[in-house]
Amino acid sequence: MGLRPRDIASRMAARRQRGDGYVRDTFTLPREEARAKARDYLSRYPKAGYMSAVESWRELPDGAIEFTMRRLPSAD
After folding, report:
1. Residue ranges of the chain with pLDDT lower than 50?
2. Contact, 69 vs 55, CB < 8 A?
């Protein structure tokens, strides 16, 4: 039985979301607003305490940036 790429992608996405403990927020904004939002996010949830990072990003055809920020739910 062959798996379609769509099936593999769905399975991988479900596995990633299953409980790795991270909170993810996805935004789609114009370039300058995206930079400001990422800076604000990282200042609100510093990497040292929340392990915050830009998990992924891409430029859309209209020039907007879609990005996902990742952090732990609380600092230790």
Report:
1. none
2. yes
